[in-house]
Design brief:
single chain; alpha+beta; four-stranded antiparallel sheet; four-stranded mixed sheet; 8 strands; elongated
């Protein structure tokens, strides 16, 4: 099954081509109203950045999650593909922030690979069911303060609290030994 990116679920993505257009139009304005040579230099630089912005936007529109008999294949906005086999998955579920943002994640503990799937894709509930049924693992529900907290929330779930190393106390112990 293929779960595709849906622009209507992330309208902010349209800011990327608008930024590319603004850079180009600004460069043309410099040519027309200020200085032709400077404007051409700026236009070349803006064109370079605009090309990559538009490439990123097109790759975002093409991004998808594909499930096969072997596992998940995620085509990303950077134009790369990441895949995880069903037998590799050790943890999967939903991560929710205090601000209400919610994303699906899959994790392979052996390779320490974490894939996050933002809510802009079609059929997220069906994808969740497919991951659970094909991998045979139960779905987790993790929470944290912000979007970047998934790794910490997952680490706290995987590693018992008694085995976690507190970096602050470790540094103070090391500092005390050197005195």
């Amino acid at each position: 099954m293929v779960y595709e990116f849906q622009l209507r679920r992330n309208v902010k993505s349209l800011l990327i081509p608008l930024l590319a257009l603004a850079l180009t139009l600004g460069s043309i304005a410099i040519i027309a109203f200020y200085h032709a040579l400077l404007g051409i230099v700026v236009l070349v630089i803006a064109g370079y950045f605009s090309f990559f912005l538009l490439k990123y936007f097109v790759n975002t529109l093409k991004s998808h999650i594909r499930t096969t008999d072997d596992g998940l294949v995620c085509a990303t906005a950077t134009g790369t593909e990441s895949s995880l086999g069903w037998n590799e998955l050790t943890h999967a579920g939903w991560y929710t922030t205090d601000h209400g943002y919610r994303e699906l994640f899959v994790y392979a503990e052996t390779d320490d690979r974490l894939l996050t799937i933002p809510p802009q894709y079609s059929g997220m509930e069906n994808l969740e069911k497919e991951i659970a049924s094909r991998s045979g693992i139960s779905m987790l529900s993790l929470a944290g303060e912000d979007i970047d907290g998934l790794a910490d929330a997952l680490r706290a779930h995987i590693v018992p609290e008694s085995e976690l190393i507190d970096e602050d106390s470790e540094q103070s112990e090391a500092g005390g030994r050197h005195s």
